[in-house]
From TrEMBL:
Its EC number is 2.7.8.-. It is an enzyme of class 2 (transferase). The lineage of its organism: Bacteria, Bacillati, Bacillota, Bacilli, Lactobacillales. This is Lipopolysaccharide cholinephosphotransferase. The gene is licd3. GO terms for biological process: glycoprotein metabolic process. It comes from the Bacteria. Signal peptide: none annotated. PANTHER family: LIPOPOLYSACCHARIDE CHOLINEPHOSPHOTRANSFERASE LICD. Residues 24-246 form the LicD/FKTN/FKRP nucleotidyltransferase domain. Keywords: Transferase. One of its GO terms (molecular function) is transferase activity.
Length: 274
């Protein structure tokens, strides 16, 4: 059953990625695969078999352009572009392209934001060279993350008390939106410093230094096969993946080959447990 669910998730995610890639191609927007998606393209020519998400990233200016054009291009489709602004209950600092025809439950992620099989779309922002300023920026961002999660009642476990939670009041929604704006200001505070040559996915799950990219790494890309399509990755994928994973071509032990996010999938009136 889990294998069937992963296969269905991969099919939906591949469709989401193709829609994303179509929009980026039509509007000349540059992107790269990130993290496990980059690793999957290099090691498996597609998905890591047990992975249950896809990650792409783009420079903030391209990210903002994508959000603008995608809003128009996706009208009347079964896709939903979930951002901190299109879903008031959504607390994360990046965007997701969702399939409206699916519903998922995630590990340690109980909240009222819209749920569906997704493609993660991350902005990449310039970061300072000074380690002290790097620490200050990420700490300020995480402090605002915490305030937003609290205000939007994000929980790591479900519990009966949640059943009595009403929708957000206008005041709660306004406060959360203000925190989101503050967080975005923190994330983008160095983007006007042209002398800074490194960018980062500030929402990354990896240790801070592991997913710092130079602008050269971001801009110098190649295209690799990914399932029945192609995906753009940095030409220096070896250096990037080695920094993140070490010996990335060696498979992890079998007990570590588990899904990261999704525990239940509903699609086409079928329900799957992972």
């Amino acid at each position: 059953m889990a294998d069937d669910a992963i296969s269905l998730i991969h099919q939906v995610e591949l469709d989401l990625f193709k829609q994303f890639a179509k929009i980026t191609h039509q509007h000349h927007i540059h992107y790269i695969a990130l993290g496990g998606t980059m690793l999957g393209a290099v090691r498996h020519q597609g998905f890591i078999p047990w992975d249950d998400d896809m990650d792409v990233g783009m420079l903030r200016v391209d990210y903002e352009q994508f959000l603008k054009v995608a809003e128009q291009d996706l009208k009347g489709t079964h896709y939903f572009l979930q951002t901190p602004w299109t879903d008031e209950n959504y607390a994360l600092s990046y965007s997701k392209l969702l399939d409206r025809n699916t519903f998922i439950e995630e590990k340690n992620n109980v909240n009222n934001a819209r749920k569906g099989v997704f493609l993660d779309i991350f902005p990449l922002d310039r970061i300072p060279d000074s380690p002290a300023r790097q620490r200050r920026q990420i700490l300020d961002m995480r402090r605002l993350d915490s305030r937003i999660y609290l205000k939007l009642r994000y929980n790591v476990i479900d519990n009966p008390i949640r059943k009595f939670h009403a929708s957000l009041s206008a005041e709660q929604a306004e406060t959360a939106e203000d925190f989101k704006k503050q967080r975005e200001s923190v994330m983008t505070m160095y983007n006007d410093k042209a002398a800074l040559m490194n960018v980062k996915n500030l929402a990354s799950q990896y240790a801070y230094e592991k997913e710092i990219l130079s602008l050269d790494q971001l801009n110098d890309t190649i295209v690799l096969p990914f399932e029945d399509t192609y995906i753009r990755v940095p030409a220096d994928y070896d250096g990037i993946l080695t920094k993140i994973y070490g010996d990335y071509m060696t498979l992890p032990p079998e007990n570590a080959r588990t899904e990261k996010h999704i525990v239940r999938l509903i699609t086409d009136n079928q329900e799957f447990e992972l």
